[in-house]
Amino acid sequence: MARSETQVGIVGAGPAGLMLSHWLHLYGIHSIVLEAKTRQHCEERIRAGVLEQGSVDMLRSTGLGSRLDREGMRHEGIELGLNRRRYRIPLSELTGGKAITVYGQQEVIKDLIARRLADRGDLRFECGEVSVHGIGGPRPSLRVARDGAEDEIHCDFIAGCDGFHGICRPSIPQGALTEYESAFPFAWLGILAQAAPSRDELLYMHHERGFALYSMRSPSLTRLYLQCRPNEDVDLWSDERTWNELHTRLGCADGWRPTEGKILQKGITGMRSLVIEPMQFGRLFLAGDAAHIVPPTGAKGMNLAMADVYVLAQALRAHYQDNSTAQLEQYSSLCLRRVWKAQRFSTWMTMLLHRLEDASPFERRRQLAELDYVTSSRAAAASLAENYVGLAMEL
Is the pLDDT of residue 1 over 80? Predict the structure, then answer.
């Protein structure tokens, strides 16, 4: 068995793992990133696409803002739709100049990988089967089995950034974690279309047939979603049927409809909320989807991952540079304050905009009244805007 050492072993080369490795490099802390998938898979997988102001500031401040500033699409507002009319929420006006930036997660991944390799970072793609050992002791390790050979990496700390289906969270002893979960009775049918965006900002539309979202990923790609059943068969949704339903739900009284284009991807996204407490055990720290999942309505998933590793990076810097463990001990509590606020907002926005099949007539009228309030009250719009552009990062 080959043996090596690092200060921080990171499992997962998503936004959390790569951003953490980059932060640690800036602080002179060595890390090794282990990723089961290929580099191409990590760089091409289409997922989230909205960056909060804090995430944009983080990328810029750590030297990763060059392509983001050239190609990212800054949005100073979003639109909510009701009864075929659009109502604009002026995000920047209501938050002192803050905004969101549309820049695909895969683009963030490309930038991070390129920078880590340029900085001679140790990134190991297609690394094989990974297992976690000794997290309750002073010197945990990661074992990597591939092609009949096994490597062992001894670490000071391990960061589990390997998503909900990863191996890090299940490595924590049974009974040490509490899981809070809530499933929604609907899902999203999402498409990626080769069509130039025909709107400048995202449009969230409430419709009697179900919610719809008009978004974009680049100047030539649009991303659109339709509310559907959780057990929906995507094969029953032909391109013609999909576009017809999008036109029905997103069409506005002024005649606007989404521009059609070749559908490049089509899939079903489930809707649920999940929080794991605490986000640490011994010398293993969970970050991103390994610790929490939010419904996509509020665009918080990637941003929460970035916030997690910001807190963790500062805590590890304090440990190595100041010989202080206080921030490491507080990692979970600091992150969970933000996580639960994001859950609150994402759930609220989800329930505000989707058709609630089992709702009573009273509940449906109450929902419409709340939408009317949010789109007509500056105070209500300001609360939405503050949360949407991202709450301040706390240490």
Answer: no
> Which residue in this structure is represented by tokens 């939010």?
294
How many Cβ atoms from other residues are within 10 Å of residue 153's Cβ?
A: 21
**How many residues are there in the chain?**
395
* Catalytic residue status for 185: no
300 is catalytic: yes
* Residue 238 Cα distances to 190, 191, 234, angstroms: 13, 11, 8
DSSP string, 88-144: EE-HHHHTTS--EEE--HHHHHHHHHHHHHHTT-EEESS--EEEEE-TTSSS-EEEE
3-state secondary structure of 291: coil
CATH 3.30.9.10 fits domain 184-270+355-389: yes
N- to C-terminal Cα distance for the chain?
A: 40
The CATH class for the domain spanning 2-49+104-177+278-353 reads alpha beta
Catalytic one of 296, 310, 319, 331: 296
> Can 247 be counted among the known catalytic residues?
no
Contact predicate 29/195, CB 8 Å: no
Catalytic residue of the set 103, 225, 310, 388: 388
For the chain, the domains span 2-49+104-177+278-353, 184-270+355-389
98 assigned to active site: no
| Alpha carbon distance 186, 228 (integer Å) | 6
Element (H, E) at 113: helix 105-118
pLDDT tens per residue, range 177-216 = 999 999 999 999 999 999 999 999 999 999 999 999 999 9
Cβ(50)–Cβ(301) under 8 Å?
no
Query: Do 335 and 300 form a contact (C-beta atoms < 8 A)?
Result: no
